[in-house]
Specification:
Blueprint lengths: L3 E6 L6 H14 L8 E6 L5 H8 L5 E4 L16 H5 L5 E4 L2 H6 L4 H13 L3 E6 L3 H5 L3 H12 L5 H5 L2 E4 L14 H17 L7 E4 L7 H5 L6 E4 L6 H18 L4 H5 L2
Parallel strand pairs: 1-2, 1-8, 2-3, 3-4, 4-5, 5-6, 6-7, 7-8
Helix pairs in contact: 1-2, 1-11, 7-9
This protein binds the ligand O=C(CO)[C@H](O)COP(=O)(O)O.
Subunit structure: Homodimer.
Subcellular location: Cytoplasm
GO molecular function, one term: triose-phosphate isomerase activity
């Protein structure tokens, strides 16, 4: 079974103390699949990265950051560089979330600079792409996100793109007012993203789905063969929530496993 990715971005939530409690709780409930069939990750705010790294210890939980600047250093008040993130030995960095595009003026061009800087520093970019409600209504979802992926990876080699992750997060599906994509709808966009990544020479880049993932829809989304992981917000902001999602998603994923020929012939 290929690795299935399940993780949570905490957005602007959780103090250092809350982070320590979450990780202690997560370690106490750690599912057997974590680290083996399932790459489990958490993305706390910058202020909690040091505490998170210490609290995770040797547990099979990957650590990510929510953003970074593309420059090595300089007069960029309030920004965080890749070298600063390296100090926390983070495993991945989330780039291009639609909230950053909408509220902080991120563009495909600046996301491309960030992806390049992350890879220069050996950080795995988790590139978020998403279609708007208008693009969805016009039947242009796949075209919109394929364009974003092409621009995010412009100028990169196949090998560099191959070290990345992509998250499909429909803008209309995210947050309190969002409506989750149906597994069919998400699956079709994931197929288009996989095709685009194949054309870019990086067919094995995992494509995760995010946007109102919850306990009711996690299994059906995970059962879509083109969905390689779930990127969860609210439903995983408790360790119990994250672990419950892992168990539902992984059970669904295991049912996808092809039946070995010996089992069929043995009757
Ligand atoms: O970033 C997200 C996952 O961390 C995403 O925005 C989904 O949030 P949710 O709708 O609260 O699951």
């Amino acid at each position: 079974m290929s690795t299935f990715w399940i993780g949570t971005g905490w957005k602007m939530n959780k103090t250092v103390a809350e982070t320590r409690r979450y990780i202690a709780d997560l370690k106490a409930r750690l599912p057997d699949e974590a680290g083996a069939d399932c790459a489990l990750f958490i993305i706390p705010p910058f202020t909690a990265l040091a505490a998170a790294r210490e609290a995770i210890g040797a547990a099979p939980v990957l650590l990510g950051a929510q953003n970074m600047h593309w420059a090595e250093a300089g007069a960029y008040t309030g920004e965080i560089s890749a070298s600063m993130l390296e100090e926390f030995r983070i495993d991945l960095v989330e780039l291009g979330h639609s909230e950053r595009r909408e509220y902080f003026g991120e563009t495909d061009a600046t996301i491309n600079l960030k992806v390049k800087a992350a890879l220069r520093h050996g950080l795995r970019p988790l590139v978020c792409v998403g279609d708007s409600a208008e693009e969805r209504a016009a039947g242009a979802s796949a075209a919109a996100v394929v364009r974003q992926v092409r621009l995010a990876f412009a100028g990169l080699t196949r090998a560099e793109i191959g070290r990345s992750l992509v998250a499909y997060e429909p803008v209309w599906a995210i947050g309190e007012s969002g409506m989750p994509a149906t597994p069919d709808e998400a699956g079709a966009v994931h197929v288009a993203l996989h095709d685009a990544l194949k054309e870019l020479g990086a067919p094995s880049v995992p494509v995760l789905y995010g946007g109102s993932v919850n306990l009711e829809n996690a299994a059906a989304l995970a059962a879509e063969p083109a969905i390689d992981g779930l990127f969860v917000g609210r439903a995983a902001w408790s360790a119990e929530g994250l672990v419950s999602l892992v168990s539902r998603a992984m059970a669904a994923r295991k049912r996808l496993r092809p039946v070995p020929t010996e089992a069929i012939t043995a009757g």
